[in-house]
Design brief:
Elements: H1 2-19, H2 24-47, H3 50-59, H4 62-77, H5 89-167
Helix pairs in contact: 1-2, 1-5, 3-5, 4-5
């Protein structure tokens, strides 16, 4: 979500750089996007497990985030509407590109970690299921054998009792 919001920020600024203006409505929309991206990133980063958080911290350096935040702050505080946004296209693309590329790398590796963990969990679940099924099947077979054995014993006992009753 943070990467999507960053892409929207980037598109808005580049469009206004091309148009040569920085209207108040675009600045307001940009401010909302930047704020939402910052909140989304910090909240979601805190919700990640340690391993995934470490990946994001490795690929999205504090310097890259600081550069992006600095440019965002200068754009948010820029009051001019009759000239382009007060950032150079190159510095804007470098800042957003560094953070976006870091997010993509971290997201891909986190996805790989989740997939690996899910595969391990599924193997464990299948093994547990196979063991439970096997033990259950063994219990059913044992109960059938025991029932058959007890039943034959009862039949023999009843046959002797019948024979004894006839004799009597």
């Amino acid at each position: 979500r943070s990467e999507e919001l960053l892409g929207q920020e980037e598109a808005l600024v580049l469009a206004d750089l091309s148009a040569g203006k920085w209207p108040a409505a675009d600045r307001e929309q940009f401010t909302e996007l930047a704020g939402a991206r910052r909140v989304s990133y910090s909240q979601n980063l805190a919700d990640l497990n340690d391993q995934s958080r470490a990946l994001f911290n490795r690929y999205i350096t504090p310097q890259a985030l600081a550069a992006l935040t600095g440019l965002e702050n200068s754009l948010i505080s820029d009051p001019a509407t009759n000239r382009p946004p007060a950032v150079s296209p190159t510095s804007w693309e470098q800042a957003t590109g560094a953070v976006s590329a870091g997010m993509t790398k971290a997201t891909d590796q986190t996805s790989d970690l989740i997939t690996t963990q899910a595969q391990q969990d599924s193997r464990s679940t299948y093994l547990t299921l196979a063991l439970a099924g096997g033990i259950g099947l063994l219990a059913v077979i044992v109960s059938i054998v025991v029932s058959f054995w007890v039943g034959r014993g009862l039949i023999r006992e009843l046959a002797r009792l019948r024979d004894s009753a006839r004799e009597l």
